[in-house]
Amino acid sequence: MRALNELKDRIEVVAAVDVVHDRVEAFSKENGIPSFYLDASEMLEKVQPDLVHIATPPNIHYPLIIQSLQAGASVFCEKPLCTSLAELDRIASVEQQTGKYCSSVFQWRFGSKGQHFKQLIQEDVLGHPLVGICQTTWFRNAAYYEVPWRGKWSTEGGGPTMGHGIHAMDLFLWLLGEWDEVSAFTDTLDRAIEVEDVSLAMVRFKNRALGSIVNSVLSPREETYLRFDFQKASVELTGLYGYTNENWRFTQPKGQESEAVLARWDELALNTPSSHKTQLSQLLDSLDQKKRPLSSTPDIRPTLEFLTAIYKSAATRQIVQQGSIVAGDPFYDHVSGIRQQGS
After folding, report:
1. Which of 41, 106, 138, 237 has the fewest beta carbons closer than 10 A?
2. Does domain 2-107+280-297 bear CATH number 3.30.43.10?
3. What is the 3-class SS of the chain, one letter each residue?
4. What would the pLDDT profile of 268-295 be if each residue is shown by its tens digit?
5. Is the pTM of this model over 0.85?
């Protein structure tokens, strides 16, 4: 709502939907929303919105996305967009049928420094990528998992791999490019939950760069940390739930400093945070221009496939290749794969 209110010259919030009457009524009054509903179908029929923002528990995302697209609305959905590659491919199919778009909230891609870094990589300013680190070490206590839908495969869809580290991993993959193979471990070490509370993965990219990934909800000193070692520089990002330009650090090899490379890194004047507002603004631009928005289904499929590969590698103790999880594979139907079936 903060993001929507900051863009009220471009967008009007016309309705809210929740299954709890008192909650949605209070939310609507608090935010000046003119109408509220207890049923999404009724809202879609009566309001006919241009855009639906979905912020429900993960297992409800997919049916609401399909319903909204088929009703003629585009969708801006919180992560994870869905809990399987099968669902994502179905969403893409419905997009084609309806001419509407579904965009995932991956706001870390949209900060000005992240976008600038992406441009430098594409222009080969820093040389070849070599080594990467992606670390989401957060803390969620037992009370956090007392919320009924959390910590369960059927409703949350996964642990920190799906629900917490997904933002950093999406940025990591988006910057370093197409991944090739992954080997991973997951475990439930300390929380009384079905899903994992920690995961570790090693990834090889098609450009031969190697990466290390850690996701945890067991870490009292919370931090999100990404590091990218290129031939001509190391680039680091340290934060928690987002970043501005000040969260980035740039280091060149001693004795091999290049003023030209440093100048390219420092040339950015814009300082836009990685926020819902930043992404939503670009989404509105795309919809105004009748173009597919950034971070929609084809853009984010490599990320969901990578998360699925982490779970499959951990369950099977095998290296998983990109493109190998297809229809007929239980992991195609749910990220937990065979574990969803009780194995």
Report:
1. 41
2. no
3. CHHHHHCCCCCCCCCEECCCHHHHHHHHHHHCCCCEECCHHHHHHHHCCCEEEECCCHHHHHHHHHHHHHCCCEEEECCCCCCCHHHHHHHHHHHHHHCCCEEECCHHHHCHHHHHHHHHHHCCCCCCEEEEEEEEEEECCHHHHHCCCCCCCCCCCCCHHHHCCHHHHHHHHHHHCCEEEEEEEEECCCCCCCCCCEEEEEEEECCCCEEEEEEECEEEEEEEEEEEEECCCEEEEEECCCCCHHHEEEECCCCCCCHHHHHHHHCCCCCCCCCHHHHHHHHHHHHHCCCCCCCEHHHHHHHHHHHHHHHHHHHHCCCEECCCCCCCCHHHHCCCHHHHHCC
4. 999 999 999 999 999 999 999 999 999 9
5. yes
